[in-house]
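Continuing from yesterday's entry. The apo prediction looked reasonable, so today I'm repeating it with zinc ion included to see how the binding region is handled. Same sequence as before; SMILES copied from the compound registry.
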Amino acid sequence: MRFGLYDCFCVETDLFFLDGGAMFGVVPKNLWAKKIPADSDNRIPMQARSLILRGPDKIILVDAGVGDSLPEKFRKIYGIQASGASMAERLALRGLTVDDITDVFLTHLHFDHVGGATRRVGNRMVPAFPHAVYHVQQAQWDLARHPSVRDQSSYLPDNFMPLENHGVLHLVDGPKDDFFAGIDLIVTHGHTRGQQHLLVKGKDTALFFCADLIPTSAHLPIAWNMAYDNEPLILMAEKQNILSRAAAENWVLCFEHDPDVAAASVREKDGRIVACRRMDLG
Ligand SMILES: [Zn+2]
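Holo prediction written out below.
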């Protein structure tokens, strides 16, 4: 699907499972389970969905999935199942290779977003996209280097330290309009400090990559948030602001973790923002 200068498509790399209660915070199970049913361990399926933007002089990857170098213990806890084709194989379906990626935007450095940014070669970790510059918010980098007790288990240094060690890391300080031609960088702090989102601007529409601000389409209601969010009140204000813009400016929202809905446009209905047209961005 085209937005402005970019052909945009999703790559689904891994399915994994998280506790449904944690994914919906204070929302009662008899409400959230109608949206995404839980398994016998109370877990719900989560997709790891990356976005690729193919522009005139750049091929941009947004987030890199879980990757294949996570410790076995992690893979078991989260029931991680590779989708059957590697990132390289999925790129090949589009006539691309990992060498073609010029830029990788990491929304934040939690393992389910950044695991595929690096890969293991022998006993070394190296960047998985060898010719790419990796863009990370400075605030998120600082947090990942010195995480709190609350979120330290989400940050695995092997996922991101090799980027600095190989000189491919570009630290960005705050939001920026037209970071690249036709792409604004929007920053939020409620889920984690320095989460960045790309807004790909088209004619009379735009594509917004929600990352963990709105991880699935079931998280569109303002109060339906994750127990993983560090600052829930800040997150709710940020979500309100983004959804108001999305409805007013006819954005398409891309949901990184929704097991079924890759993307949707939204509209206002009875004072709330709801999904109105699903898209697969395949
Ligand atoms: Zn996260």
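Comparison notes:
- The pocket of zinc ion is lined by residues 108, 110, 191-192, 212 (CB under 6 Å).
- The first helix runs from residue 20 to 24.
Will overlay with the apo model tomorrow.
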